[in-house]
Amino acid sequence: MARTPSAEAQAKHRIPVIERMMGILAALESMENGATILDLVAMLDVPQTTVYRILNTLATYDMVRRDGQGRYQLGDRLLSLASHVARDAGGRDLVNAAQKYMDRLTAELGESVKLSVADDDKVLVVATARGRRDYALGVSVGQRLPLHAGASGKLLLSYYPADVQDKILSRPLQRVTEATICDPEQLRIDLRRIRSRGYATDSGEGMAGIKAFAVPILDSGGSAIGALSVPFLAQNRRSDEDQIIAALLRTARELESELP
Fold this sequence. Notes:
Blueprint: H1 7-12, H2 16-30, H3 37-44, H4 48-60, E1 64-66, E2 72-74, H5 77-90, H6 94-109, E3 113-119, E4 122-129, E5 144-146, H7 151-158, H8 162-169, H9 184-197, E6 200-203, E7 210-218, E8 224-233, H10 241-256
Antiparallel strand pairs: 1-2, 3-4, 3-8, 4-5, 6-7, 7-8
Helix pairs in contact: 3-4, 6-10, 7-9
């Protein structure tokens, strides 16, 4: 039987600059609003010139991006890499399969549409279709929120095994907005309701002033592999909310029929 290399032996074959790069990526992952070079220097105790060179290299490959205030965030290239991992593991290319259905749904409803997946205790937007009606929300790939905050996150969380739900709900729950549900028992009631009726709702829980509906995209075993959602301004009260939910459910079932 082959021996597992000791920790000391493994350490001898690591590349320090790559370990520093992974530390920077991990730090950016933990900071939803991004970080400056000085933030990262303080967090990681790495020389400023080293942090700058690593970030500059990562930005060249779109692994990170820099905003106008000098803050760095994870880049879109990581989403492309993640989509290939998901496709290879499950034989599915959910993003590419979903886009035409999302575009069609956007044309039908006039509102923006998002495709999100679970990432441990977070929900990550991996594809979008921009709405065409006045005041349709701008939606961005790469948006990340806690699973308990918002329609898509709660929808995906409702499909987690009970023990995993308990683990997530036992942690301190971040209050993203004044409407975010942070009480574990109230969340459990909401999650059971979501599973019972087959869709999730959200009134300002993930983003103030935004209402949303979300439905699951299921694999052949009944597990949720993604969430399809329609967010819109809560002040733009729509009289056809039941039709929005019905259109979401119909679109999700059509998408599922195309997946392996």
